[in-house]
Write a structure and sequence with these properties.
Blueprint lengths: L5 H11 L3 H13 L3 H20 L15 H11 L5 H19 L15 H11 L5 H21 L4 H4 L1 H19 L4 H14 L16 H20 L8 H14 L16 H15 L1
C-alpha cells in the first residue's frame, strides 16, 4: 500500500489484525522488494547510526562558524551536578537533542529523521529510553517503522523540507514522528499514535525556518530540543486518553497549506526572522568575508 494517509494505515492494521509498524514494514518490503529480515536489518542499521551519533559526540567540537558546539556537554554536566527542573529523563532528552544537532552542525554522521536539520528529535526521545533499559533494540527498531510511516505520510500530503514549508515541516514532522513512536513503544493503539502525532504537529504549526547566515545551527539545534520535549508531552497526553480534536490527516494537510502560504523570507532563505536580526546580519557578513579570504 502507499503510505499517503494515516487513516489508511489505521484501517489496514485493523483489517489485518496487525500493528502500525507491521503495515509500514510490509510496505517497505513491497516497495523495495526485500525480505522482512532485510528490511528489519536496514532499520536496525539506522538505529545504530543514531546511537553512534550520540556516542561519538565530543563537547570540544565546534562548527566552522563557531556558533554550534559544546551545549550538549554543558547540559549533561548540569544534570550530573544538580537536579534539573525537568527531571532526569527529560534532561537527558534535552542533552541528546543538543548533542545530535551539534554533531550535524560539526559535520559528523547523523540520521536525517526526516531531515538533517531535525536529526536530533527522534534520537533524543529513544536513546534515553534505551539506555535506561526500558526498551530493547528490537522494540526500538519496530518503533522506528512507526516514525517512518508518519514521516512518509507527511512527506506525501504536505512537505518535510524547510524550504517548502518552514521549520514546521522539519522540526514539526520530526516531533510528530517521535511522539507517535513513543506512544507505540508505550503500548498505544493506532488511534493514540495518530492523536500524539497530530498534537505534536499542531503545537509547532506555523514555525518559520530562519537559519542565521543560512547555516543549520542557529536556531536549528535548540529547536531540536523543543521538538523532542513536545513529543514527550504529546505522547503522554495521548496515553492519558487525551485526543486531538482535529484528525491527524487533516492536521497534516493544514500544515502543508500553512507552508504554501508562508512568505518566502520564512522558508529557509535566511532573509527573515532571526536571520534578519542585527546579530544574524553580522554573522552573515563575517562568514562572507571569511569565505572571500
Amino acid at each position: 500500500m502507499a503510505l499517503d494517509s494515516m487513516q489508511e494505515i489505521f484501517d489496514a492494521a485493523a483489517a489485518e489484525h496487525k500493528e502500525f509498524w507491521e503495515i509500514v514494514l510490509e510496505t517497505d518490503m513491497d516497495q523495495r522488494e526485500v525480505t522482512r529480515e532485510q528490511s528489519f536489518e536496514k532499520m536496525r542499521a539506522t538505529w545504530r547510526a543514531m546511537l553512534e551519533a550520540d556516542d561519538t559526540y565530543r563537547g570540544d567540537r565546534r562548527s566552522a562558524s563557531g556558533l554550534a558546539g559544546g551545549d550538549g556537554k554543558k547540559m549533561r554536566c548540569y544534570t550530573a551536578e544538580q537536579n534539573s527542573l525537568s527531571g532526569d529523563f527529560l534532561a537527558e532528552v534535552i542533552a541528546t537533542a543538543l548533542c545530535t544537532g551539534e554533531s550535524n552542525a560539526c559535520m559528523r554522521k547523523i540520521v536525517a529523521a526526516p531531515t538533517a536539520g531535525a536529526c536530533g528529535v527522534v534520537p533524543a526521545v529513544l536513546i534515553p529510553l534505551y539506555h535506561r533499559g526500558d526498551v530493547t533494540e528490537d522494540e526500538i527498531v519496530r518503533g522506528l517503522y512507526v516514525a517512518a510511516g508518519i514521516g512518509a505520510v507527511v512527506g506525501y500530503r504536505a512537505c518535510i523540507a524547510g524550504a517548502s514549508g518552514g521549520c514546521q515541516a522539519e522540526i514539526g514532522t520530526a516531533s510528530a514522528m517521535a511522539a507517535g513512536t513513543l506512544t507505540a513503544l508505550r503500548g498505544g493503539s493506532c488511534a493514540q499514535i495518530g492523536h500524539a502525532a497530530a498534537m505534536a504537529l499542531k503545537n509547532l504549526l506555523g514555525l518559520v525556518c530562519d537559519p542565521v547566515a543560512g547555516l543549520v545551527e542557529v536556531p536549528c539545534v535548540k529547536r531540536n530540543v523543543i521538538g523532542a520535549v513536545n513529543a514527550v508531552s504529546c505522547a503522554d497526553m495521548a496515553m492519558a486518553g487525551i485526543e486531538s480534536r482535529v484528525p491527524v490527516d487533516q492536521v497534516i494537510d493544514c500544515m502543508g497549506a500553512v507552508g504554501r502560504r508562508m512568505p518566502v523570507e520564512f522558508r529557509e532563505t535566511a532573509l527573515g526572522g532571526l536571520a534578519d536580526t542585527p546579530f544574524g546580519r553580522e554573522v552573515k557578513e563575517r562568514m562572507e568575508k571569511a569565505h572571500q579570504n
